[in-house]
Amino acid sequence: MSSLSDLSRIYSTKFIRHILTSTHEELLDELSKSFPFIKEAQNNGDFNLLFNEAYRVLLKKYRCEYIYKSELYGKIRRESRKKMKDGILTEVKSGKCVADMLWLNGTSIAYEIKTEIDTNRRLTNQISSYHKLFKQTVVVSYEKNIETILPDLPEHVGIMYLNNRGTLKLHRESKEFLDYLDQETMFFTLRRHEYEAAIRELYGYVPSVSDAYIFEECLKLFKKLSPLEAHDVMVKQLKHRASLSLESNFSWPKSIRLLLERGGLKKTEVLQFSKIMS
Asked: Which helix (H) or strand (E) holds 138?
């Protein structure tokens, strides 16, 4: 244990909940054997030190998916600060794939992250999957990987990279690509209460059938929409989902902002954690 990959485990809702229930010391005791700052953080009850210093170490030595997501989330937040109708989601189902991040900002942009510890094996299938749901797609990776993935990426797919200083840079702008938008795939992305709300708004009713048939009947109605109409309906429902993500008045450190605002924690848990951090 006590490797950099183990250190990255503190950036999880599971570990936050361990802190809230005071069951986090076992992991930290193990990590402290390799990372001295953790023992200092434990002794002083300083979670700001714990998360900020761990983030600095990972950014420099082990740029895992959380680091990429966090940097991307920060960039999107800065760019959308004055656009209150924007929505940001992580881990959005897209057919057989899952988009790492989704930005709903008048259009829909799916982000696929490929870190130094990932492979590019599934990238082509992932991009094809996102084309069925979202208007734009961006691959976020590291600079040395650009030459490797470039031949396999359509020209409309954007490319960003995390440079050696830990700053996200734009290599190529993304462009809208609508040819493969698919109503059925969009419908599968929605949860039951979302597609029922969409059908009710579109048609004024939800089919009066048993639970065994509600999915099938709603899908039939959804597929009557044009691809662009279906896209806009889907985006509207996903924005409602994004609004449920927590934007706290508490000024979270950059290192855990993504985790606390988009990590799936309950509001009561976030409020409890803010008291610990203050």
From this structure: strand 136-142
